[in-house]
Structures
1.
Amino acid sequence: MKDVAVSEYEDSIDFDALRGRHYNATVIERIDCHENLARFRIMPDDGVPRFQAGQYVTLGLGLWEPRLEGTQQEIVPANKRSRVAKRAYSISCPLLDDEGRIAPNESLDYLEFYITLVRAADGPDKAPPVLTPRLFCLGKGDRIAIGKKITGAYTLGEIAPDATVLMLGTGTGEAPHNSMTATLLANGHSGRIVNACCVRYLGDLAYHSRHMSLMDQYRNYRYLPCTTREPINMNPEMPGYVGKQYLQQLFTSGKLAEAADDPLSPTNTHVFLCGNPDMIGYVPPGGTPPSTPGMLPLLEQAGFRQDHSDEGPGRIQFEKYW
Ligand SMILES: Cc1cc2nc3c(=O)[nH]c(=O)nc-3n(C[C@H](O)[C@H](O)[C@H](O)COP(=O)(O)OP(=O)(O)OC[C@H]3O[C@@H](n4cnc5c(N)ncnc54)[C@H](O)[C@@H]3O)c2cc1C
Ligand SMILES: NC(=O)c1ccc[n+]([C@@H]2O[C@H](COP(=O)([O-])OP(=O)(O)OC[C@H]3O[C@@H](n4cnc5c(N)ncnc54)[C@H](OP(=O)(O)O)[C@@H]3O)[C@@H](O)[C@H]2O)c1
């Protein structure tokens, strides 16, 4: 295509027609936790298909859509402006209905997403974030593209009713765990269910009060939030100073098992890891392990295994967000 000035090119594009062609869902509610973190409830035009807790779907917006003020600038070449950018998002779960009762995904007529705004690339050599600066411009009633297929192998699978389920997430990595938690509790799972979330600040725990309410209702449920950038994490002078509470340290020190009130033994525990790849610590064959080990090698040392052929206890599953 010949290089044309953006304004000249834009004149020739019917953006409303593009929206009509590509967008197939509506934002029915947006619940902001803070300016960089929100829950989006989205209703696909064709209704919510059946899916399993833990799965994901793509959301997309046209590159012609505006970006939120205060996010990194992005130059979209004129010949790419009519494209739709898509990203994968785990399907989260509000956990409770309006009466405070457990609300698994199948009881809802919308999909809930838990999304952090990436304002800028984390390095000068990296491309600016594409989707979230546009997504955070949306509000109730706005249209969006949603993938036709909900997919993903990060699911509960076969879990005995009395087994322990350990879910470790960073940031929005708690999203699939919320769906799994609601499913397990709604199905009467009797074993320990541990949902640990590591975030920078307490204010990054959008579902905190819902988890606390679930703990009141279900004796086998443990929600274990931890932070890394609060004064108790950063300032040794602070009373109650604990340093950075990485999930790895909580696991190796035994504090996680203590707080979970469960031995977290590989003979009876299924493990799910989701979010920041550095917390997960997957090293591809021939790759160099990071200086701070992630959860995978630590779990393996403790007798857990990454084994895709076997669904029994001791198995580790993970979902890296980038
Ligand atoms: C299977 C799967 C499920 C996902 N589910 C979610 C979800 O439920 N919620 C969600 O917020 N994101 C989720 N992501 C990440 C999501 O797909 C996008 O990458 C993210 O929203 C940023 O999109 P972007 O286009 O703005 O920036 P991109 O250009 O895609 O990403 C830029 C950089 O932002 C950082 N980043 C990306 N995602 C996150 C994140 N979640 N938290 C912190 N830093 C991040 C990374 O450093 C990444 O390199 C998921 C990713 C995968 C693969
Ligand atoms: N209040 C805010 O302004 C705010 C809050 C949240 C997010 N954001 C934005 O959201 C984006 C993502 O932030 P996020 O906090 O959701 O995700 P994140 O950067 O993945 O951090 C989530 C948690 O994982 C921890 N973590 C990082 N490296 C780890 C490792 N090697 N092992 C174990 N844990 C590790 C982080 O601790 P560390 O403290 O060590 O990073 C943090 O507690 C960023 O672009 C950011 O700008 C802004």
2.
Amino acid sequence: MANFYTDHPEIKFNVESSPLMEKIVNLKEHGYADKDNFDYAPEDFADALDSYDRVCEIAGEITANTIFPNSEDVDAEGPHCENGRVRYASKTYENLEATRKAGLNGVTMPRRYGGLNFPVTVYTAINEMIAAADAGFENIWSLQDCIETLYEFGNDDQRSRYIPRVCAGETMSMDLTEPDAGSDLQRVMLKATYSEEDKCWYLNGVKRFITNGDSDSHLVLARSEEGTHDARGLSMFI
Ligand SMILES: Cc1cc2nc3c(=O)[nH]c(=O)nc-3n(C[C@H](O)[C@H](O)[C@H](O)COP(=O)(O)OP(=O)(O)OC[C@H]3O[C@@H](n4cnc5c(N)ncnc54)[C@H](O)[C@@H]3O)c2cc1C
């Protein structure tokens, strides 16, 4: 049976032969501290490489035998609009379900949120297999990495509310571009206003050209400080 991982040994070579890989894995695993709390957490570097290998092999299996064979039908059917929402081609849902079942969501996120805690190197290897099977689907799947921004800059409440959803298979998008703000993002005008009464922010404005723009969760760049006209005064909203 075809497998986009085992049929292309250069992917494994790239993952395992980087001179910095042992250092990267040590940093990502914080000295393998998760081993006492999660039975699937690696105990050492060799164990980590073994789990990357196993997950990559599963990714290789579904990319070769589900996502690649589905790609022609996905192109022929395409996405369409239904009741004001985007509906993907039917086989895109099959692909999303296959990646979800294989645990390929929240690949780089910590285990405590339901992620695999893999380094970006491994995420990129899986991404390469998915792109080879269906470059369009790769866009939808790989936008899970928008969650890196929330993990890095969000607070604990936002992390615990949103990261598990992405690890469970929800999709994401990064909403930056506007009709008058493309290359020059300092011109973003979408307005964010805080309501003391409702204790939340309201966003008002227009975004365009957003890849996977009807995703489950959005990171949205908006102007949160009145009277500003450049990059100062912009914030990211989830
Ligand atoms: C396939 C695709 C997917 C996209 N996905 C997303 C997404 O997920 N999220 C998102 O927010 N946006 C997305 N975009 C939008 C993308 O980020 C913008 O198209 C891009 O930033 C350019 O902006 P613009 O189209 O307004 O063009 P403009 O910025 O108006 O540029 C028009 C032309 O002017 C040139 N130009 C601009 N500035 C200068 C300068 N200072 N000096 C010289 N020449 C200049 C450009 O090279 C270009 O030829 C996507 C676009 C595409 C094509």
